[in-house]
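---------- Forwarded message ----------

FYI, see the TetR family transcriptional regulator record below. Original note from H. follows.
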Amino acid sequence: MVVSRAEQRAVTRQALLAEGRRRFAADGYHRVVLAEVARAAGVTKGAAYHHFDSKAGLFRATVRQVQQELGERVASAAERHEDLWEQLRAGCRAFLAAGTDPAVRRILLVDAPAVLGWDEWRALDEESSARHLTEALTALAEAGVIDDQPVEPLARLLSGALNETALWIARGGDPQAAEQALDRLLAGLRTSA
């Protein structure tokens, strides 16, 4: 079987991403050495630099991959429900549950804001899970389930609370207590009608 150059590049890139992800999750950004990632992935250091330019480039691509997967998990959990309110609850719960995933905890919640900077980290978050939160809140406001209000500040408040709580869970906090607190917080958003 003949493998094209494009297929080989894709395989090499994926191997580097997989090994980078494993090491960033286990060791943290500052302890990872790109040459060691390349060696463990079975490629040359030059191939690693060709695909990612630097350790920061590999980390950025890893963050993007983990963010995208998390956004898909959140959306999948929400889509299992017909009711808009239950979609919001399920999506938020899925995000909190992700705090037990070492890659999410270390890569997204601990290292990404510090390594990439707040603005870049927020932009990546907006492309994935934060976008789903904004869409859910917009749909709830349009349906009259929550009061009509500017959605962006509400989404940012909830996103910040979810990020902090996922990190708290990752550090040993009680997931059940977090879910109960989440339900009480969300209940305060519902209209009285």
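H. also flagged this: The chain has two domains: 1-52, 55-187.
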